[in-house]
Amino acid sequence: MPGSALPSIVSTVPGPQSHAWVDRLAQHECPAITARRARRALQIGAADTDPIVWAEAVGQNVTDVDGNVFVDLTAGFGVAAVGHRNPAVIAAVKAQCDVLVHAMGDAFPDPRRIELMDTLATRTAMDRVILGTSGSDAVDAAVKTAVVATGRHRILAFDGAYHGLAFGPLASLGYLRHTMRQPFERLLGTHVTWAAFGGALPDATALSEFAAVLVEPIQGRGGMREPPAGWLAGLHEAARAAGALVIHDEIYSGCGRTGKFLASELRPDLLCLGKALGGGFPISACLGTAGAMDAWGASTGAAIHTQTFLGHPIGCAAALATLDELDRLTPIAAITGASLAAALREVPGVSQVTGRGLMLGVHVHNALQVTHDLLDRGYIVLPCGERAEALGLTPPYGLTGAQAQGFVAALTDVLQWQR
Ligand SMILES: Cc1ncc(COP(=O)(O)O)c(C=O)c1O
Predict the structure, then answer these.
(1) How does residue 173 score in pLDDT terms, banded at 50, 70 and 90?
(2) Are 331 and 285 in contact (CB under 8 A)?
(3) I need a labelling partner for 327 at 20 to 30 A (CA). Which of 111, 124, 182, 316 fits?
(4) 1 falls in which pLDDT band (50, 70, 90)?
(5) Domain range holding 406?
(6) Does 127 lie in the same domain as 153?
(7) Which of 252, 258, 270, 272 to mutate to test the pocket of ligand 1 (most atoms within 8 A of CB)?
(8) Does residue 231 have a pLDDT over 60?
């Protein structure tokens, strides 16, 4: 099967072609983007921390510009859940390209957008949808809806949270992500209050001025962290009693990542989806109950919330095909995730495996160095957690047994050298 290969490393990692491309990139890209490599070099004392430059990807495999083949345990930030260049998604996009590439957002819709909203609403038991192109868009739409629906403006968010870097979501980033907020602090307002994720529940009186509680049912970038059993239900109860809405940010944890379409079975007032939804094409959705969304009132002409690419036909066609593929692949994610987690727990040097399905946090000493060493062996992983204390594994759901075993063997080898 294309995309099921084990790693094949034929040059240094990164190789000469990657270096050449990165030299060129460094000439024009804003330095804030490349700074992460400098930070990692500083932290792990490595001389060579240039990234590999991706040339091609299919299924679970990425090939770089030097011809090295990697197994992608990130699915490209959790996006390629149905595999890179999934054939059904590509076929749907090609067919859509032959008929309509761009419609007109809030002014003139098209059939794919309408079909996608029908499908999403049915699948999530929600009533209404606002489409966007990024996860940040979906969170923005949810926060704005909560403000419109409640007439309040305060938001409760959680430590370790990540909701995107546009101004709306940035304000709600967990306070331990201070570096991302710090330059913009004065523009972020004072409407967000943070509580401990999985910690003491707020009482209804404390929430009485709040428009919404914004929460990831499982924190992704925050370390694949699950709250204790019953905590989310308690949060719902407190919010309801206070008249505040509950927003579930399932941008990372949704679309089958945990082995079910959604990580939480509780029905929120607003639900954000993105990342994997478009099978690699940028599309996101904020879904809501009629009670929450209808507070916007009917458009009288100039929409007060929209964007140029709202409900982009290519993204919608890709999402419809992705949702079909997810029906087939999500049960597999549950099984593969359980066996991968069990195998990882046996690896000497792994102190803890958190998360569910194929959304796993593997706690190891010096995760940044381990990430680097795994790349040398052909496995792409990202660090996660507030202090980069774990490896975040969010592979495509088609990860094969051989690829999973190969990764476990590579990790065992890396950790053995560390000790
Ligand atoms: C839980 C969560 N919400 C929101 C976002 C932001 O999505 P985007 O980067 O597409 O704006 C992310 C991205 O990692 C995320 O993990």
Answers:
(1) confident
(2) no
(3) 111
(4) confident
(5) 16-85+329-418
(6) yes
(7) 252
(8) yes
